Recover the amino acids of this structure.
């Protein structure tokens, strides 16, 4: 299960021209940890994820879960009737 989207982490790393090995050397994290973080599968401590995010200039945000997606029967009222 993904609990976050790791694609932004991968994108930022590549924008900086860094390999996973570069990140490993800089942070002391293993490549396996880095791979898991980039896939959104990391289940280790938040302090390790923060180490990587700090290096990239990213941060962790905690937000309230949203359960306000429209139901199927509500879609027509959102988009109006076809004329």
């Amino acid at each position: 299960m993904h609990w976050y989207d790791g694609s932004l982490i991968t994108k930022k790393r590549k924008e900086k021209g860094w390999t996973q090995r570069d990140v490993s050397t800089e942070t002391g994290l293993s490549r396996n940890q880095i791979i898991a973080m980039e896939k959104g599968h990391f289940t280790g401590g938040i302090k390790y994820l923060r180490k990587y995010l700090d290096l990239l200039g990213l941060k962790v945000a905690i937000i309230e879960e949203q359960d306000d997606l429209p139901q199927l029967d509500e879609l027509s009222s959102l988009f109006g009737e076809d004329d």
Summary: The two ends are 43 Å apart (CA to CA). Residues 46-56 form the longest helix (11 residues). The chain has a mean pLDDT of 86. Residues 37 and 49 are 7 Å apart (CA to CA).
